[in-house]
Amino acid sequence: MDLTLVSHHLCPYVQRAAIVLHEKGVPFERRWVDLAAKPDWFNAVSPLGKTPVLLVGGDPVFESAVICEYLDETLAPRLHPADALLRARHRGWMEFGSSVLNTIWAYYTAPDAAAPQAQREVLEARFAQLEQALHPQGPFFAGAGFCIVDAVFAPVFRYFGTFEALGEPGWFSRTPRVGAWRAALAQRPSVRAAAVADYDARLRAFLRERASELSRRMQ
Ligand SMILES: N[C@@H](CCC(=O)N[C@@H](CS)C(=O)NCC(=O)O)C(=O)O
User: Fold this and answer.
1) In this structure, are 38 and 90 located in the same domain?
2) CA distances from 175 to 97, 99, 107, 129, 179 (A)
3) Does residue 46 have its Cβ closer than 6 Å to ligand 1?
4) Which of 19, 52, 74 marks a domain boundary?
5) 9 lines ligand 1 (CB under 6 A)
6) What is the chain's mean pLDDT, rounded?
7) Range of the domain at 187
8) How many domains is the chain partitioned into structurally?
9) Which of 16, 43, 46, 51 to mutate to test the pocket of ligand 1 (most atoms within 8 A of CB)?
10) Which of 73, 129, 203, 216 is most buried, with most CB under 10 Å away?
11) Residue 164, pLDDT above cutoff 90
């Protein structure tokens, strides 16, 4: 299968697809796109103008969750649970991960001094929900085996290394299981391989340009 992942350097949805590809051990190419100046070839394969898109031969598949599901149906090893009910529950937590990404966006774009704290409280409440949903022994979401929910949350947690370095510590101090899960994911080779080497520097530059409370704190 000839696979190309159309990618943006900072996109967490791209990373989840890249993690699944790495977990499958399948070779794939990357094609990078500048989302601030979308080229015609990109608009032709991405109906919503978003990354990621997976090109399978010449056929585009868009939406990261759909890409992950397609890869899981066609390539071993299976990352989703075999049981239909468990699989449905995992899909729910994948959606939960996308909702957390929306709150992270609201956190780093918050315009005034009070707003980041309000979003931080929402995020910490989400982590408290995850603390209850996680397998008690870990190291991954459902226990010993890495699953697609892990691929979804690894890029979520990546933001917090940068936020901590910017002087916003203690995100996981009340949710130790989530903290341990985050640490286990950071060690996973597929997770390390999914992001560009200069991810942190790129994210800082991106955050600095947001005209937000966080960007003002960075000056
Ligand atoms: N629901 C989509 C979300 C993807 C998404 O939001 N991608 C962002 C970058 S991280 C994007 O391409 N934004 C460009 C735009 O909306 O114009 C998915 O899961 O693939």
Assistant:
1) no
2) 16, 19, 19, 9, 6
3) no
4) 74
5) no
6) 97
7) 84-218
8) 2
9) 51
10) 203
11) yes
Burial of 98 (0-12, 13-18, 19+ CB in 10 A): middle
User: Above 90 in pLDDT, residue 219?
Assistant: no
Confirm if 146 and 188 have CB atoms less than 8 A apart. Answer: yes
Instruction: List the structure tokens of 8.
Output: 């943006």
- Claim to verify: residue 70 and residue 110 sit in the same structural domain: no
Give me the residues paired with residue 198 across strands.
none
Find out whether the beta carbon of 11 lies less than 6 Å from any atom of ligand 1. yes
Strand residues in 8-95 grouped as ranges (E):
29-32, 53-56, 59-62
Strands 29-32 and 3-7: parallel
Q: In the predicted model, is pLDDT for residue 218 greater than 90?
A: no
Specify if 171 maps to a domain. Answer: yes
At 105-155, the pLDDT tens digits run 999 999 988 889 999 999 999 999 999 999 999 999 999 999 999 999 999
